[in-house]
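Appendix B.2, paired examples.
Example (i):
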Amino acid sequence: MSPKTAQPELIQLAARPTAVRIVSTTTDEWRAARAQAVLEQEYARGLAEGEARALAGAAALLAKAAAALDAQRQADSEALARDSMDLALTIARRILRSEVDAGRYGLEAMVRETLGASGAGRGACVVHLHPADLARLEGLPFRAGTELQADVEVARGDVHVTTARGTVVRELDAALAAVARRLSEDLPS
């Protein structure tokens, strides 16, 4: 070939050709088109990889947010249970005090149950009551050896029984406190 004619270039193929076609482009144009195709392919691969990484990161953030939301839901649920219990006890205390103030409670039964719990049997004992409660029980028979006494230190609705073995106290506020403790034990911690 003369110096003015182009020298044929050797092109190394990755695989044996299965078909041949004639193109009207130069080798440089073919290489540029091939490079553009490889560039587009690599761009698409990089884009897909970036999207996959972004989704993986978003999934991790979503999982973290879900865990935080679940922890907050659990804390709110426990707080709601405690607040509900406190509200119920406050309502019960107010209703109980209202009923006591109105005299709508089984005072005689309370005194007899407290006497039974004292273990005094037929022995001597003193039942300490609020003066208004003592007035309600006047004229009711109790076992021999039982003395009813007015005590301004005892709240209405409360009963204190003093025996030779000690004192048995039945107080409404203490009963509500015991209920509150029991309910608190049943609450999730």
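Example (ii):
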Amino acid sequence: MRSIENNAEAIVIEKKSKFIANIFYVESVREAEEIIEKTRKKYYDARHNCYAYRIMQEDNLIEKQSDDGEPSGTAGVPMLNILSKKELVNVIVIVTRYFGGILLGTGGLVRAYSEATKKALENTNEIEIEKGYIVEAIVEYEMQKKFEYACEKRKINIISKEYAEKIKNIIEISKNTYVEFCQKMADENLNGILIKIEENKYIKTLKNQRK
């Protein structure tokens, strides 16, 4: 599956109307709805806050769009179509419009909302995502560097470290890598204990860097 690496923003001016596109990486409908509410509060004085999202949740693709008062089909639908054609998931794009006093017509609105969405996408990186886990790895101090090297070699992200009697590492790991990594720890006597904290976490893999 494909998604975006980082949140991004873009601005388009069309006949004095200002279109502010904000795009976010999300992993649930609840998270998307919270972002919509925060955006509405941030741009409380705007005429419209239109949005579209595609989210994989419990193996189901959930799609939703809103014109937020614009003529039907002129904002949310073209925004959603762009995300769909690029096969992006776990993404929400919100385009805020400040009306400039000149009517754009249905064609002009579709072009403006589409352009704002495309420009926001140009300001982020494309990635692959796959199912995985958030895992707590308890490692002896003398084995930490070896553990970190094993993670780096497999592109496993160490989210955080906590130093106590032993070192507690919180890592993101794909399902495909998990079994092999457990075996690696055993084979090399890393003396680590792996405990799954959260299953079905989507793991990001960088695909193409934005130029």
